[in-house]
Every structure is written in structure tokens, then in C-alpha cells.
Amino acid sequence: MSSSYAKSKPQRIVSLSPHLTEMVFALGREKQLVGVSDYSDYPYAQGCINEDCSVKLPTVANYQGADIAAIIRLEPTIILVWAGGNKTQDIDRLEQLGYVIFRSSPANIKALMEEVLTLGQALNAVSKSKKLHADMTEQVGNIKSEYAKQATNALYYMNQQPLSGMGSDVWINSLLSLCNIQNIYADLPTAYAQFSMADIIRKQPEVVIAASHQNLSSVKAFWALHQSVYNPKIVSVNPDALHRFTARVLPELTLLCKKVHFENN
User: CB of 242 within 8 A of CB of 252?
Assistant: First the structure.
């Protein structure tokens, strides 16, 4: 964060990441949004601040970068940026122009929970942020206690062609560890990697976690091709909920942990 946050007039918030847009909603400040990034599609459709989309906000950032000129025209009082996702040169340029910048960079759930409080301060939503932080703290505690005596290992993948998914990604691995799921590729040198089916069969992880929007029957059909040598428990997870740095991750993780440890395949 830089500079002090003005509290004398309604803020004009620009969000340059979907997870930050979602957190603005979680803190009840969506009516102060004036611009968002591509894929800001929760809780409503892209750029919408209500269900009927009577107001649709302009998109001022995508994977190619931020539209600095469009952001300037919106006259923001604060710009929310993702230090791990937005381009450094775009963030630096906006800072040089004198804008108040909130930098988001949560590596794990603990860091996200701390960020909820600091974002609450930045958006003049302290009471809501404290309530959200308390709710998240309770959810984390419940997950840890529920699965303290459970343990399994898993393959966590997102794509079938090519077969690829999470390696040493800190965010996903820290979430899985809350309910004692060990990613078999957590020790890889890269956060994201392609996998060899032969190596997976050799390792024989007990569970396969498919983080995709593909229906579960299709996922099971893919793995059924190898069932003579490998027949794991197969579960699916909503990647939008689990991969974004928002409070929505914990209800989704709760569902995943239950599927992995307690439900039949």
C-alpha cells in the first residue's frame, strides 16, 4: 500500500484482478467500483454489480496488461492490484502517476486472512472485514479439527491434454494441507507442470483431484482407460472458487476435504 486512504468522500475503486473485485463485493463496497479486470465474474456476470446488471463496469485490465489511459479517465481514488499477476511496469506507472495503490499478494490462507483486514481498512469497511476474518478463522479451525486424524495423497490436475496441474504451488498445497491431503508433486521445482501418466501410475496416488469445469462422469471416463493398473478415488473441485484468493475458497475446500476423506467414489 502507498499513501493514506481518503475517507472524506465516496471512493472510486478500480480493481485489476478478479479476486480483488470479488473481495470488494465481500466487503460490501461494490457500489464504489468504477472499473474492473477481465474475468471479474463473481458474484455476477463480468463487470456487473447486481444480478440484473443495471450497471456494467468497464474492463480496464486483462492478461496483456492494464489500460492506463482508461484507468486515468475513471478518476480512481484507489487502485487494487495483484502483485503476482498484474505487470510490474503497469503497477509502477500507476504509482508514478500518484494513485493510491493497494497491493495484494497472499501466498497462503493465513496471508489472505490478514489481507482481508488491511483491505477492510483501505476500503473503509473495517467492521465487515473483521466479521469476515472471524468467519474465515472459524472455518479454518473446523477444517483442521475435522481432518486432524485423516491423511491421504493425491494428484491435483487441471488439464487432460496435456495432462498437467499443480506442482509446488504454495497456495494450493497450503490449502490441501489443512485437511491432510498431500500433493504427490508438491516437491517439483515448478508451481505448475506437465505429468507423465506412467509416473502417476508408478506413484499410485490414492486420490485424483480434477480442478476443472468438466463434468465428473467425463473425468472418470478418462481415468477408466487405465483402471486395470490404476483405480483411484476421483473427485472434482471448482477451480474458480479454490484458485482465487477470496473467502469463497474455504467453503469449497470444506467440500473437497469431505469428498476426499469421507465420501464414496
Answer: yes
